[in-house]
């Protein structure tokens, strides 16, 4: 996953934050239907699942399905294809405030780098169970990189 940033590395987080700061409320997607503020709110969901209680844990059957069928696509090295369907929790139907969502995303990135790899090694995911730090980075960085590329940054 060499082209995907290491979001446990402060320098690479700084580069990712620069990409986020290059977005404007007028940034348009190269594909898909989300606005830039919806994309930022959508990206924040992954971090909300770690740092808040806003999102419930899926039921045991759904967790089994997610672990067996979806997990490797989400945390593994293969890039996300364009227009990939998303889970209901990640669908943003309202129009969030651009600056609020941008600043929340940046704060979440700083929180991840502050905890470091050791804070994520073996940490439980609501959907996938315990993940390695490498898998957490795949989950966070691959998803965020996909959407930043969607908006041309």
Structure description:
- There is one protein chain.
- The chain has 153 residues and is an all-alpha fold.
- It has one domain (10-23, 33-150).
- Helix content is 56%, strand content 3%.
- It is built from five helices and two strands, in the order H-H-H-H-E-E-H.
- Strands 1-2 form a two-stranded antiparallel sheet.
- Strand 1 and strand 2 form a beta hairpin.
- The longest helix is centred in the last third of the chain and has 23 residues, at 98-120.
- The mean pLDDT is 94.
Q: Could you say how many structural domains there are in total?
A: 1
Mean pLDDT: 94
Annotation, overall tally of beta strands: 2
Number of DSSP helical runs = 5
- Could you give the order of the helices and strands? HHHHEEH
Measured by DSSP, the beta-strand proportion falls in under 5%
Strand order of the largest sheet: 1-2
Helix content: 55-70%
How would you sum up the major sheet? 2 strands, antiparallel
Oligomer: single chain
What integer value in Å does the Rg equal? Answer: 15 Å
Shape: globular
Structural class: mainly alpha
Q: Which residues form runs of ≥5 with pLDDT under 50?
A: none
Ends: how far apart? 19 Å
């Amino acid at each position: 996953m060499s082209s995907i940033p290491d979001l446990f590395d402060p320098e690479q987080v700084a580069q990712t934050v620069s990409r986020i700061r290059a977005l404007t409320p007028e940034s348009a997607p190269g594909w898909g239907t989300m606005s830039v503020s919806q994309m930022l709110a959508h990206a924040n969901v992954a971090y909300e699942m770690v740092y808040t209680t806003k999102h419930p844990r899926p039921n045991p059957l759904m967790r089994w399905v997610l672990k067996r069928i979806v997990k490797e696509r989400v945390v593994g090295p293969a890039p996300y294809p364009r227009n990939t369907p998303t889970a209901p929790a990640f669908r943003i139907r309202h129009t969030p405030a651009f600056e609020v969502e941008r600043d929340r995303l940046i704060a979440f990135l700083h929180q991840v780098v502050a905890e470091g790899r050791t804070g994520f090694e073996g940490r439980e995911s609501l959907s996938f169970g315990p993940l390695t730090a490498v898998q957490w980075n795949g989950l966070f960085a691959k998803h965020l990189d996909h959407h930043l590329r969607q908006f041309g940054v």
